[in-house]
Specification:
By secondary structure, the protein is an alpha+beta fold. The chain has 4 helices and 10 strands; from the N terminus they run E-E-E-H-E-H-E-E-E-E-E-H-E-H. It has a 4-stranded mixed beta sheet with strand order 1-2-4-3, with helices on one face. Strand 3, helix 1 and strand 4 form a beta-alpha-beta unit. The radius of gyration is 16 Å and the shape is globular. Bound molecules: manganese (II) ion.
């Protein structure tokens, strides 16, 4: 099978983003969003999902991190959608329960073509590094509508904001890796409707 790849460029008055996502990667990444903690989260996403991700974002960080994080979510959703293409042969559903010390985060995804987002992470701190923890929600919400996928993220436990966020990004990565994996038994798309 050819490697599933997407390249997206998106420029607005608020952000200028270039992204390359390789679904059939090996966990390599080069990320520069100007937000150290967010780079750390996206590197974890690539490494643990075994995706390759090259992403740069030049955003209006003089305002705050909001536009940069949200717009990276939009672009990554577009990249996921473009890379998986017609979805033939993929497992479609993915889930993972990921522990990170005190944090235990469950994620479930469906690459169904419909956006839905369910989120209940609760961060004890307002920020991790220079990134507002409220932006974790904005990122995954943007991915869900932009990729037209269901994303459920549930916090089962967690005391440390860094661990909660990192476990969420890794749980999402593992779930997406499962959902985008192919199964030779699946002919066409995995739907009784015949379309995803
Ligand atoms: Mn960390």
């Amino acid at each position: 099978m050819n490697k599933r790849v997407a390249k997206i460029s998106r420029k607005t008055k608020e952000t200028d983003i270039v992204c390359e996502l390789i679904i059939d990667g090996s966990g390599k990444s080069e990320i520069d969003t100007g937000i150290g903690f967010f780079d750390h989260m996206l590197e974890g996403f690539a490494r643990h999902g075994l995706f390759d991700l090259y992403l740069t974002c030049k955003g209006d960080l003089d305002v705050d991190s909001h536009h940069s994080v949200e717009d990276c979510g939009i672009v990554m959703g577009q990249a996921i959608s473009q890379a998986i293409g017609d979805k033939k042969g993929i497992r479609r559903y993915g889930h993972f329960m990921l522990p990170m010390d005190d944090a235990l985060i469950a994620c479930a995804v469906d690459l169904c073509g419909r956006p839905y987002f369910n989120y209940d992470l609760k961060f004890p701190d307002e920020r991790c590094g220079e990134m507002e923890t409220a932006l974790v929600r904005e990122f995954f919400y943007a991915v869900s509508y932009s990729a037209a996928m269901n994303i459920h993220l549930k916090q089962l436990d967690g005391l440390n904001s860094h661990h909660i966020a990192e476990a969420a990004f890794k749980a999402f990565a593992k779930s997406l890796d499962m959902a985008t994996d192919t199964d030779p038994r699946i002919e066409d798309v995995l739907s009784t409707k015949g379309a995803l």
